[in-house]
Amino acid sequence: MIMQVKNMNLSPVPAIGVGGIVFNNQDQVLIIRRNQPPAMGLWSIPGGKLEAGEALADACKREIKEETGLDTEIKNIIAVVERRIEGFHYVIIDYLALLVDQEYSVPIAQSDVIEAKWVNLEQLSDYELVEGLEKIIIRTFSFYRGDYLAGLYDFDAANTDYILPEFR
Fold first, then answer.
1. How far lies 57's CA from each of 17, 29, 48, 89, in Å?
2. Cα 61 to chain center, whole Å?
């Protein structure tokens, strides 16, 4: 028996993505330029899709390494965004990530990116960033520099449960 699909305009299946916001000692942020959809040609932070069986923080660390060659330590969740763009539907969890070695921090575009570079925060508006990213980067930098507490923390170091920090 042949079944016919009546509605060919099916909504995309949601996918989970991760992104890593990384700063260096010169107060620059690491950005990459995408070379495939969605948002091909736009600037973003390193990141990608969660693989089956992978912890979110591990996926973030892997994606940063795959796209830039840099090793990082994944810290707290900074933002959760939902994007429906170009036939894709992503729920993206953005993390603050710290460089493992500040001395060897030259990003090299790899994997599915055209460029990877450090950018001064004052120059972010010169780049065509993905929607909403500039605000997330600026707020994350304030947290990174110690201006305020933010984000969800991995309270038991298991990479599974993230909660608000304790306030005293």
1. 11, 19, 12, 20
2. 10
Which residue blocks in 19-132 are alpha helix, DSSP H? 56-68
Domain ranges of the chain: 15-163
What is the tens place of the pLDDT at every residue in 28-75?
A: 999 999 998 889 999 999 999 999 999 999 999 999 999 999 999 999
Tell me how far apart the alpha carbons of residues 40 and 113 are, in angstroms, rounded to a whole number: 9
Length of the chain in terms of residues written: 168
pLDDT tens for each residue of 15-29: 999 999 999 999 999
Of 125, 9, 105, residue with least CA distance to 64? 105
Question: Which class in CATH covers the domain with range 15-163?
Answer: alpha beta
State the pTM of this model. 0.87
Q: How many CB atoms lie within 10 A of CB 112?
A: 14
